[in-house]
Amino acid sequence: MAATTIVQGAEVTEFPTITPQAARGRVLRVTEVGEDVLHRPCRPVTEFGTDALRTLVDDMFATMLIAEGVGLAANQVDVDLRLFVYDLTTEDGVRYVGHVCNPVVEVLGEETEEVEEGCLSVPGPGADLFRPLHVRLTGADIDGNAIEHEARGYLARCFQHETDHLDGRLYIDLISKRTRKRVLKDMLALRPDVLDRRAQLTAGHDKEPVAYPDQPFV
Comparing C-alpha atoms, which of 191, 209, 192 is closest to residue 200? Predict the structure, then answer.
């Protein structure tokens, strides 16, 4: 039986492993903790249906592919807009792919779940974090059409993590100071290998290489 794939909230019968957006897009540098664009709220998207917005979504999917992420916010590619993309497969084998402009997350119910979380802008380590288990996401697509998704578990966590980014908040802002210190220390040790891996994947997908600074911004 073929795996289920949900694209922009609708089930599709066929979908490639590499999204068309990622195939078209160019790879951008992922911004890292300490850069100003990650630590302040982003501007709402006000112009829809533009070539610039479509190109940005393509580039974000390509960047997410190379960084081996499941979600990516616009400020993680140094763009000050309330927009994120996602491509993840849940434990039950359902793949969810899409983008959301101007996302708003509403928590549904009181149940929470503690799961290890990581971030492409904190390359390498992760930390356990409680988040609500059930949420509703509303927003718009790049053409301005309304979007509404109800999500649980892994997908709900992704929606919350990426919306947090657009509010200027990283997951390490939600953990204890002691754990945050450990995560940042581990990042310094793991970052070179993470960036080498991204460079290898960039070449493997025949994309133009992107340069990172020798040292992170923290």
Answer: 209
Q: What is the rounded distance in angstroms from the CA atom of residue 68 to the CA atom of residue 18?
A: 12
Q: Mind listing the pLDDT tens digit for each residue in 89-148?
A: 999 999 999 999 999 999 999 999 999 999 999 999 999 999 999 999 999 999 999 999
CB atoms within 10 A of CB 167: 14
CATH topology of domain 5-102+119-126+164-204: Peptide Deformylase (3.90.45)
Distance (Å, whole) CA 74 – CA 41? 11
**Distance between CA atoms of residues 30 and 120, nearest Å:** 7
> Of 68, 117, 162, 208, which is the active-site residue?
162
Number of H helices, E strands in the chain: 4, 9
What pLDDT, in 10s, does the model give residues 159-188?
999 999 999 999 999 999 999 999 999 999
Q: What are the tokens at 207? A: 């994309």
Q: What are the tokens at 111?
A: 């149940």
Q: Is 162 a catalytic residue?
A: yes
Tokens of 126: 């992760």
Opening angle at CA 139, ends 54 and 98, nearest 5? 50
